[in-house]
Amino acid sequence: MIAQSNNVGYQVSQQTKILIFDSGVGGLSVFREIEAKLPHINYFYIFDNAAYPYGELEHDTLISRVDKLVCHYVQKLAIDLVVIACNTASTIVLPTLRAKLSIPVVGVVPAIKPASNLANKAIGLIATPATVAREYTHELIKDFSNAKPVELLGSTRLVDMAEEKLRGQQLSQAELHQVLEPMTGKVDVAVLGCTHFPLIKEEIQNVLGTQVLLVDSGEAIARRVQELLGQEILANPDKGQRKIFSTAPPYAEGALNKALQEWGFSPVQLEILDR
Ligand code: DGL
């Protein structure tokens, strides 16, 4: 099948189905932005928690997992558009997926370009250890940082903290200070280059200070999805379906399902494809 990234050629309707993919709950920050524009379509959220955290996974393993899972669900659920709501995956899997699928595949990459237009001093990139090491990220910095210095901070602990917060756990301010310490006082704009981080944006802002502008890609992704699906906005639409699937039993499942219910999702359904 041929890759396609332009308009799918139909108006978005109540039958439209979007698949949102991440390693964990981070993609919900992207879902939130898309849903705000397109509440009436159907959302299927898949998280590969069996291989979480993606920020510490081998390249080849990541590419083959995302490929297998996304292709499986696209076919099974007759999906119209895929959002890889994960920077760590998007920075390496998009060419493979687009070559296989005939529907649009939208990826999320760190918002270096918009950040460089906003920064006066220096840009911070807070992402997973894999994303800060990716060649793709370094190309983005070279092409778009407008020669502004870019401070890199890769942290899996911050990803875990976002998972914990969504399950209702209290985050430790002292620990956050410790994790973000290398960035403190050095930048005036910080890119949240992992989709988990908008879920703890307030906490990050408290540590870095209100003088630091935090930027993420969520809204831009939502605009892109809307553009690809067509512009029709229904007045007072009914909400579509919201279903969520995991690849392993999630930890603190009760707390997770409670939070997901508030986001409009039915309880997590476990589907293991690995055996
Ligand atoms: N949410 C992901 C991202 O945007 C990955 C987090 C992880 O599994 O390490 O990069």
Give a written overview of the molecule.
By secondary structure, this protein is an alpha/beta fold. It folds into 2 domains: 2-108 and 228-270, 3-Layer(aba) Sandwich (Rossmann fold); 112-218, Rossmann fold, CATH 3.40.50. The protein has 11 helices and 10 strands. The strands form 2 sheets. It has a 6-stranded parallel sheet with strand order 4-3-1-2-9-10, with helices on both faces. Strands 6-5-7-8 form a 4-stranded parallel sheet. Strand 9 (242-246), helix 11 (253-262) and strand 10 (269-270) form a beta-alpha-beta unit. Helix 1 (28-37) crosses helix 10 (218-229), helix 2 packs across helix 3 (87-100) and helix 8 packs across helix 9 (201-208). The protein starts with 16 loop residues before the first strand and ends in a 5-residue tail after the last strand. Bound molecules: D-glutamic acid (DGL). Residues 22-24, 26, 52-55, 86-88, 128, 131, 156, 159, 194-196 line the site of D-glutamic acid.
> Which CATH-level-2 architecture of the largest domain?
3-Layer(aba) Sandwich
- The structural domain count equals 2
Q: Main β-sheet: number of strands, strand sense, barrel status?
A: 6 strands, parallel
Mean pLDDT: 92
Q: Looking at CATH, which topology of the largest domain would you report?
A: Rossmann fold
The level of helicity is 40-55%
Number of strands: 10
Shape: globular
